[in-house]
Design goal:
By secondary structure, this protein is mainly alpha-helical. It is about 70% helix and about 0% strand. The protein has helices at about 20-75, 80-130. Keywords: Coiled coil.
Length: about 140
């Protein structure tokens, strides 16, 4: 059985002057945000590049499928290219699906970044005004 920690003769410090006070938490949150911001921007840039390449890939798949259909129609000897066209269209469908997932993730990331920026600005304004933070959850 684990021993319980010794009780303190006084309550732990709290409030704006304490190390765990709102100002320290805000400073930590702002530092963490500044630390993560470059990674978030880089991720956003890479997601955007992947989305662009997927659009290009989808266009190339469409072009190839159209060309295969045209070749199939022009052939004097019957070649069955339908299975290949179906595979291409299935690949195109998967590319579109992944693109939609990436687009949704990028939109959520954009909203999160926007909300964090708003909250940071709100907290900075409160710090500059010299106000204390409520002990509840952040505003929405």
């Amino acid at each position: 059985m684990a021993a319980s920690p010794p009780s303190l003769p006084y309550p732990p410090p709290s409030g704006p002057a304490s190390p765990a006070g709102p100002a320290a938490r805000d400073l930590f949150a702002e530092g963490l945000l500044e630390f993560l911001r470059p990674a978030v921007r880089q991720l956003d840039t890479h997601v955007h590049a992947v989305r662009e390449s997927q659009v290009e890939l989808r266009e190339q798949i469409d072009s190839l499928a159209t060309e295969l259909c045209r070749i199939n129609e022009d052939q004097k000897i019957a070649l069955d290219l339908d299975p290949y066209v179906k595979k291409l269209l299935n690949a195109r469908r998967r590319v579109v699906l992944v693109n939609n997932i990436l687009q949704n993730a990028q939109e959520r990331l954009r909203r999160l970044n926007h909300n964090v920026g708003k909250e940071t600005a709100r907290r900075k304004a409160m710090l500059e005004a010299g106000g204390n933070y409520p002990q509840g959850s952040p505003s929405k």
